[in-house]
Every structure is written in C-alpha cells, then in structure tokens.
Amino acid sequence: MLDQLIKFAKDQLGDQFNSNNQLDSNQQNEVFNTAQSSIMDTIKNQIGGGNIGGLMNLFNGQDDPNAQANPIAGQAQQNVVTSLMDKLGLDEGKASGIAAQIIPAVMQRFASPETGTAENPMDLIKKMGLEGDNGIADMIGKFTGGDGNVADKLKNLF
Up-side HSE of residue 32: CA atoms within 13 Å toward CB? Predict the structure, then answer.
C-alpha cells in the first residue's frame, strides 16, 4: 500500500516538484524511494513502540494527518529529512522542503477514506502489507512475549 501512496504523491506533485527542487529523474526516484523507506521505518517504529492504536486512528481518518498536528506524521517527516540528508547528501533546508511536500501528500492519502479503513490492528497490518514481516512479529513479541505469528501476537494485544 505504501508504494501506491508514494506513487500517488509523485504523480500529484508532478513536474513542478522536480523543477522547484531542481531534481533530475534519477534524483526524483531516489527521493521518493528514500521517502518510502523512511515512512515504512516510521510505521514499524510506531508498531514497535506499541502505538498501533495511533496508526489505526490515523489510517481510519480519526486523527489529523498534518505533520504539525500528528506525532506520527511529524516523525515520518523528520525521518524523511534525516534520510534525505544521510542517503542523498542534501542540506537540511532542501531536505526539509522536500519532506514538507511529500509527507502531506502521503499522509492525507493514508488517512483518506479512499484507502479504506481498518477494522482491527491485524487488518491494518495486512493492508500495509506487513503480515509476513518477521521484524514486525518480533516487535509485537516484545509486548506479548513468546513466539508465534503476527496475527497471534496482535490478538494478545487487545
């Protein structure tokens, strides 16, 4: 799902994004790939920190997806800035400007009814394509103890 949200943001921002940020097509692809991995890391960190409820609220449109109003969106934006600086060598100003364009487009869509709603944490994990991620299972295991699959661990959380 996140790859579709990133593609949507890339399409929505269009050529003006490239010209405003003076990016060629290779740089643009790297920026969006870096943003995608940074946002996914943010989501995994939220799950690992036990904030599945916060992700559910954001995904289901119950929380403001604005980075200034929502700690998850704010953390995603900061992670994108840091990754763009580290991986692409962008200065903080340029990285911040790029993240400030990408994150609102992705988070608005993430929280949009168009992406659907999640009835429970496992449904959200499935919609994000993380049900087979052993790292997610390990993170959830920190809260539930023992071994098992993601579904078993999520059942134990609620």
Answer: 23
Q: Which amino acid is it at 110? A: F
- pLDDT(133) > 60: yes
Alpha carbon of residue 60 to chain centroid: 14
Say which range, 100-104, 118-122, 126-130, 145-149, has the weakest mean pLDDT. 145-149
pTM: 0.82
In this structure, are residues 71 and 22 in contact, taking their beta carbons and an 8 Å threshold? no
80 contacts 34 by C-beta, under 8 angstroms: yes
At residue 137, the pLDDT reads 54
* Residue 131 and residue 151 in contact, taking contact as beta carbons nearer than 8 Å: yes
| Interatomic CA distance for residues 88 and 134, integer angstroms | 28
AA identity, residue 8:
F
Distance of CA 50 to the CA centre of its chain: 16
d(CA 84, CA 86): 6
